[in-house]
Fold this sequence. Notes:
The protein has 353 residues and is α/β, with parallel strands linked by helices. It contains twelve helices and twelve strands.
Amino acid sequence: MFLKKYIPYYLKIRILLFLQKFKSATIFSTQNLKKEDSKVFIFLAANYSNLGDVAITYAQEKFIQNTLPNHKVVLISINKTIEGIVFAKSILNPSDCITTVGGGNFGDLYDQIETLRQLVIASFPNNKIISFPQTFDFSNSPKGKKSLAKAISVYSKHSNLSFFVREQQSFELMQRHFPKVKVFLTPDIVLSLDKSQPQITRNGVTLSLRADDEKLLTSEQNESLINWAKETFSNVSFYDTHINKGNLSEQQLDEELNKIWNQYKSSELVITDRLHGMIFSYITNTPCLVFLNNNHKISASYEWIKEQAPVILIKNFDLESINEAFESLNSSNTTAYKNLMEKYLPLKQQLLS
């Protein structure tokens, strides 16, 4: 036990993977899957309290089901990655497809998730693997450079890996650093959803604001924004995309997604500095004022929807800009949700190939 904290994470999970081969993966025994079934696996599926990540898993599953209706989609939760690898190998056939979840965990900030993704990709050298839309987020620190070198080594060895990214900047960085990997550009997979119907009577404003290391707004700006909301609306609600609940079932996670989508659909306005606060506003056709975070996720993803009101990105914080943006949303004639499915054609093609 004393030595545990000194064992690097990448080595620890390889030891666990080796030991898992001698155990039974009872958690998957109820899935009733056979080797001859056509299957698509979703590894690193979110089953924790970040509703942005939960929505990514949800949207990825729906997208695969709609694209490959005759395939069985198998969710492997991120906390069951080791057991899932051994289980998948026991029922895998050469035509089965492995996918890893999209999101913003491709880099050295969430290095344990990146290590698990590398383990998944290295574990299935003979199957098609598709990484759903990610953000390239390796820092220029010594740790970031070391992590990037490791990722390049692992991914470049796989002969049938397709890696999707969700912003132009990530696309260019992937092309530069991963010349041996097939790289494609599509929006965040949650933007493939349409949750605009049924409509709900709208009343008041909902604020979904960060309280973590990615936050760019200062505490003074945050307070000023809340005061503006209270002066402008009689009904002010706070509903973050990060909830303090754990160990939720797939059904409970779906319920939590529907709760926040209905909260947005019942709001006249959403104010957020979260990427999926912006995206949830778009897919529910809810007017939204979005503020930057400390990386390029929001500004780059906004490019996919900037021509499609009712979402406005405010790059420089001041009350005049906020008032002007709010007035612009109120005067906008654009009310119908616009489908972005054509942007996902490369992803469909890779699944079908």
